[in-house]
Amino acid sequence: MGVEPQNTPQPSSASTGLLEAAYQRITAAWVSSAQQLGCMDVHVLGEGDVDTEVLDPAHAVLKLNSGHTIPVVGLGVYLCEPGAQAYEAVLSALRLGYRHIDTAQVYGNESDVGRAVRDSGIPRKDIFVTSKLSIRNWGKSRAQAAIDESLKKLGLDYIDLFLLHAPGSPDTRAETWAVLESYHRQGKLRSIGVSNFGVVHLEKLAQTAQVTPAVNQIELHPFLQWPRLVQYCRSKDIIVEAYSPLAKGQKLDDPTVKQLAQKLNVTPAQLLIRWGIQKGFVSLPKSTVPARQEVNLNVFSITIPDDDMATLDGLEADFVTGWDPIRDAPV
Q1: How are beta strands 69-71 and 75-76 bridged, if at all?
Q2: Known catalytic residue at 78
């Protein structure tokens, strides 16, 4: 996917080791229970300020600092096997009403996502597609070639949201972000953002960036809430996206979660997803099972009362289920 030019700064051996270790860990990061959800109208960015009126999924959006809107729920396709599984999962979700698909170069299924988008019969403008730049494709030349390849594999003229998948190497972070900014100005990347960035990484990026990230996608659920990071993002008008919103299924049997779910007559998964939506996050649960996708479309008929939200807030346990570049990646 292109060759880095000779004048591209190379990361130190220590940074390279950390990055490669993180890259290897990503393959074990999202073993999430299968679920998906649906539709409400969201007009504001702040915690708690959500309109819970049930509407068409196309109206379930938050406004990005780029001026575009992002559906508040997306289908994550990590660990969806390239080929039939990824294609059928995306096509099923789109037919059920989802309008946000989240893929990445490292997932290996961009082509399947693009094919399902085309075969769905839904107008391209109505589907929000996210992909991410692998940390192996950093540096000006490599990043340019990799973005072109993502556009080609997806079969799209533009990508709605394109992220740096992790903080990566500080030696090439600024120049790699500049490539995203260039494609953003060309209209090929409608919005650009980051994933797994901590406050220190965002502050460092801001020293050279011309465009503020529209999104920071992080692992986020009641057991891992990142309050300082979330507050920082909100102060900079950066939308927070939650991947692994179900803590990879590891907390679905938590006694408090089960008790509250039973009280509200919802599933534990619906409870955790709804918690994130009411906090003002974009939620990215994963499902390859149409029946489970459909069940979770009912999440926006749910309202978690304030006292129960407070109970869920009290579950914070710094429970990281996968890799942790927010803490581990060099600044």
Answers
A1: unpaired
A2: no
Encoded tokens for 230: 């979330």
Q: Strand, coil or helix: what is 49?
A: coil
- Cα–Cα distance between 159 and 128 in angstroms, integer? 8
Torsion of CA 238, 319, 29, 169, to 10 degrees: 50
138 vs 173: CA distance, rounded Å: 7
Token pair, residue 36, equals 């998906």
* CA angle in degrees (0–180, nearest 5) for 235-98-321: 60
Name the catalytic one among 78, 107, 183, 232.
107
Distance CA 161, CA 61 (A): 14
User: Structure pTM?
Assistant: 0.85
Q: One digit per residue, pLDDT tens: the chain, 331 residues?
A: 232 222 333 334 344 344 444 334 333 333 332 233 222 333 333 333 444 444 455 568 999 999 999 999 899 999 899 999 999 999 999 999 899 999 999 999 999 999 999 999 999 999 999 999 999 999 999 999 999 999 999 999 999 999 999 999 999 999 999 999 999 999 999 999 999 999 999 999 999 999 999 999 999 999 999 999 999 999 999 999 999 999 999 999 999 999 999 999 999 999 999 999 999 999 998 889 998 877 777 788 889 999 999 999 999 999 999 889 999 999 9
The answer to whether residues 45 and 239 touch, using CB atoms and an 8 Å cutoff, is: yes
- In whole angstroms, give the CA distance from residue 244 to residue 235: 24
